[in-house]
Amino acid sequence: MLIVKVLHLWLVVSWFAGLFYLPRIFVNLAMVEADSVAERQRLLLMAGKLYRFITPIGILAVLFGLWLWLGFGFSGGWLHAKTALVVGLLGYHAYCGRLLRDFQAGRNVHGHVWFRWFNEMPVLVLLAVTYLAVVKPF
Predict the structure, then answer these.
(1) Secondary structure letter of residue 76 according to DSSP
(2) Which of 11, 2, 126, 138 is CA-nearest to residue 68?
(3) 80 has pLDDT over 80
């Protein structure tokens, strides 16, 4: 089970790296001038490739987490809270996909400041999940 735990942590770190960077690309996309078509296309290409790369990583992170859950059991309020945060993170990931499709279709309605705040959400979730997993406060 230690190998499963190592793989789970490695996948979670990789998934979060993508979730930290993708909204930063959105910040840049929101700042692109209308006449900068090449820059916009390059950022859209980067965002699309990153989203397609981190999606299976996120799925694998969740699957390895479930494997650990089944191996160790689902007990303690901390694990319920952590699971709720992971479900929220899956929603965040899916919403990033929607935002990407909006950018691709030219329908983005948010400014770069909104994306800067949006980018902070996974940071807070990572802090909470790490705290719950290490401290197990309840």
Answers:
(1) S
(2) 2
(3) yes
